Amino acid sequence: MTDAPLRIDTRKPFSSTLNQLDRELLSARNPDHHWTGQLSASALSTATAISALCVAYRETNDTDKKLLYSKQVQCGIAWMLAQANPDGGFGDTDRSHSNIATSYLVLAAITLSQSVGVTNDTKSRLVHEGQSLPQVMDSLQNYLEKAGGIPALRKRYGTDKTFVVPILTNLAIAGCVSWDEVAALPFEAAVFPQSMYRFLGMPVVSYAVPALVAIGQVKFHKSGCLPPWSWVRQRCIAPTLNALQRMQPDSGGYLEATPLTAFVAMSLIEKGLIEHPVVQRGLDFLLESATADHSWPIDTNLATWVTSLSIAALSSSPGRLARIPETEIDELTSWILSCQHNERHPFTGADPGGWGWTDLSGAVPDADDTPGAMIALTALRSRATAAKQVQIDDACQRGANWLLKLQNRDGGWPTFCRGWGKLPFDRSSVDLTAHAIRAFNAMPTEFSSQPDVQRSIDRGVVFLRKQQNEDGSWAPLWFGNQDRPDEDNPIYGTAKVLVDCDARLGEKAIFGGLEYLIANTNPDGGWGGGQSVLRYFCSDSVLNADAAPEGPRTSTVEETALAVECFTSLYSRMCAVSGGRNDFLDAPKSLTNRTRDAILGGTAWLNEAIADKRHEAAWPIGFYFAKLWYYEKLYPTIFATAALGRVDALNRVLAAQEDEANSS
After folding, report:
1. Of the residues 57, 305, 352, 405, which has the maximum number of CB atoms within 10 A of its CB?
2. Displacement of CA 184 from its chain's centroid (Å)
């Protein structure tokens, strides 16, 4: 154990910043007292929606629908074209680098929109911005050629056909490529029970089965195959369409996701099934999910996820959750409880007991939102009525049992389905595994001490140790950094593995992760980000990036906050402060001091960043599907609230200890 630490001096700016964040986070709730959040508009999603509506416009005979589709296409095209980057390509969000996948989808959307026509309003907008539609197309074609064309698109995804085949299908429907470029997908596999999918060698991830069916069918319709397999496929058309219909949620949007729903709709329309219920409900979803600026986000919302994160953030130091009135706490608790899935899920076949990312019908229970909801309910439990506490305990028990059944043989947790490990976004991941272990440890001792739970944690810890990189970091599955060569995000992954980590992870692994985070502190004192952050803020009135005495700031609020939260979590355990976890870490004094310095430096960075309103510009660190980038408006506020709340809690304990020592 190290010598007693000095009190962390945060003083007035810190308290003012934390109070500001609390107010902003609480004011971001909706009228039902939970958080909905706001996902970034996406050029990728907008392009796929436009393509689906264009194909529907071309094939429908309903005059009113033609007018409706045409109007939405015109508005969507105008928004989308304004998102072109200086290199001629398009990124997933307005803060994203150009990428070949989104750029090809934009090409298909523009091509298909020619059948709808380009209004004078759209043309005038382009001229006002100094471009004509032909110039936009020329620049886009040049970007795609320089990026490597179709071979480069295939290379981006490798053997994973989850996204490359839908993109090529979209391009083939638009006439941009031959149908020969589109791989045949085994849609007939969907006739088997969902429990067998993982044994069938699916070329797509578990959550892309609707695309497998729709795209597989349209490819078979266009290209056929030789007998006797063609006879088998012909007989499987009707039953797999029925499976597709059973999987479709009440909202009409598969996973509440615009791209997946759009790919399904355009493929079936191209096959001649525009009147099929799956298509009509899918088109309705696309029309209803367009935003006020006529764009589409990657998903409708992450309401359950951001609500769970917000509650955890407000619970990071004593008394702050008390700012929510008792009646609203009850409503908030009831809402989270209502989001738990209580029936076998028609999409993935998941057992009851888990939570998805939203309360909407397209959500699917997963191994990140389930522990998130459990931790949030545990935080709310102390303010709940006795009857509500019983409900919370029952819900958390069912959630924990759901997680226990989902754990893979390698000891890690996958996102949706156990045993699907062949493709990247179905594999076990460190961020989900660490989250599940944290949820188990947050539960009452009578549950967490059960032998099967302890065995599960042991296996999870072994998985985490095996996944640690030589430099001490961990790479997450669902988050990235666009400025890194491999687009991974070891700051996020390492912070999420280490925060409140189980002591069984071992001091070697824990200290190795800490050393990585400390060694990768940016010159500006924060973490993460890169040159794209600098370029954005340099061109934005929010901040003069060169004003800081240490030079331009390239860090992000999100990643800096995650690092500070992690450091603070471990610092209390290094110093054996009262109120910390009871599994203390015997860290070298030098590491303890450097951890304290990292907390101070990160806290100072966050204070300045919030004062400069940097947290109002969320950064694209999130992945949806196969590296489809998004940002969530609430992430910077939530993450910073959690980090500074941790510092506040630690500082109170250190101050009390200091006062006690002085008085004695």
Report:
1. 305
2. 29
Residue 299: beta bridge partners?
Answer: 257
When pLDDT is averaged across residues 28-52 and rounded to a whole number, the result is 97
- Cα separation, 171 vs 173, in Å, equals 5
Angstrom distance (rounded) from CA 525 to CA 551: 10
Q: Provide the phi-psi class of 427: left if phi over 0, else alpha when psi is between -120 and 50, else beta.
A: beta
The pTM for the full model equals 0.94
Residue 582 corresponds to which tokens in the numbers above? 């009871």
- Burial class for 151, CB neighbours closer than 10 Å (0-12, 13-18, 19+): exposed
Per-domain residue ranges for the chain? 1-32+474-664, 41-297
SS3 of residue 622 by DSSP: strand
How far apart are alpha carbons 375 and 354 in whole angstroms?
13
| Owner of token pair 């490798």 | 158
Percent of residues, the chain, with pLDDT higher than 70: 92
Contact, 32 vs 331, CB < 8 A?
Answer: yes
User: How far apart (Å, rounded) are the C-alpha atoms in residues 538 and 548?
Assistant: 12
Answer whether CATH 1.50.10.20 is correct for domain 41-297.
yes
Tell me which residue of 634, 34, 633 sits closest to 338, measured CA to CA.
34
Helix (H) or strand (E) holding 42: strand 41-42
Amino acid at 392: I
Q: Across-strand partners of 297? A: 41
* CA dist., res. 612 & res. 450, Å (int): 48
Q: State the greatest distance between any 2 C-alpha atoms of the chain, in Å, as a whole number.
A: 90
Higher pLDDT, 396 or 626: 396
| R_g of the chain, CA atoms, integer Å | 25
Phi, psi at 422, each rounded to 5°: -85, -25
**pLDDT, tens digit, 9 for 90 and up, residues 530-570:** 999 988 887 544 444 444 445 578 999 999 999 999 999 99
Give the whole-angstrom CA distance, residue 487 versus residue 189: 33
Query: Using an 8 Å Cβ cutoff, are 286 and 265 in contact?
Result: yes
Phi, psi of 483 (to 5 degrees): -90, -5
Task: Quickly state the pLDDT bin for 226 (edges 50, 70, 90).
Answer: confident
Q: Which amino acid is at 183?
A: A
Burial 434-454 (b: 16+ CB within 10 A, else e): bbbbbbbbbbeeeeeeeeebe
Is 11 within 8 Å of 644 (Cβ atoms)? no
Do residues 484 and 528 make contact, with C-beta atoms less than 8 angstroms apart?
no
Distance between CA atoms of 25 and 315, rounded to whole angstroms? 13
Alpha-helical runs (H) found in 407-530: 430-442, 445-448, 451-467, 490-498, 507-519
Q: What number of other Cβ atoms are within 10 A of residue 659's Cβ?
A: 11
Bridge partners, 630 (sequence order): 622
Helices assigned H by DSSP within 290-385: 303-314, 326-338, 369-381
CA distance 450 to 481: 38
